[in-house]
Amino acid sequence: MQHAVGYTSGGGGQFYGAKARLNVWPAQVASPAEFSVSQIWLISGSFGNVDLNTIEAGWQNDAYQETGCYNLHCSGFVQTNARIAIGAAISPVSSVAGRQFDITLLIWKDPKQGHWWLQLGSSGALLVGYWPSFLFSRLGASADTAQFGGEVVNTRPSGSHTPTQMGSGRFPGEGYGRAAYFRNVQVVDWDNSLIPAAGLRLVADHPWCYDVAGGQGGDWGNYFYYGGPGRSARCP
Q1: Residues annotated catalytic, as ranges
Q2: What pTM was estimated for this model as a whole?
């Protein structure tokens, strides 16, 4: 499992949601045992304490062949909008040195009923559905960490990297039009208000395979580029 992400946590911070714009790519997967995902995570608890809760939403590229219940095949998520087909292909998608297409995702907690809602889009945004409050223990109150970025998972690891792409398959240094991005990265605070994700920390497990680099300013607010090609001259 490889990550190239930005996250904010600690310092007594409690998060009641997260929002970002991320562009969508036709990332190539090298093996049926792998998948590549770009998403938002809201996290509370830990593996070590056996109390980890996560909510995750984004796009991925293996048509759910190996990823289990990221769609509605398992109970839990309650869809409320028939205009959105969860698990369907997103179109159009971005192309290298071509037009860029992104989606806006917002996850937020209803302060009255405690459900976690998923919203798609910015202007004319649609409520897709919600994760009921009874599903969670640690996320019953709030999230400890808000995380954004890419993940590549090999469900049958062989001890070496494959050329499965994260994001666009290009490194962050290639910039706009070539690298995948998250922009306008925000969190929901205790007052149910969207604020910039302060102190966003950028981490890549293996930056010679998949990397992350970011900045702040202008219409993009807090942003970062991420991704890479997997196995290559830099990533043997």
Answers
A1: 56, 151
A2: 0.93
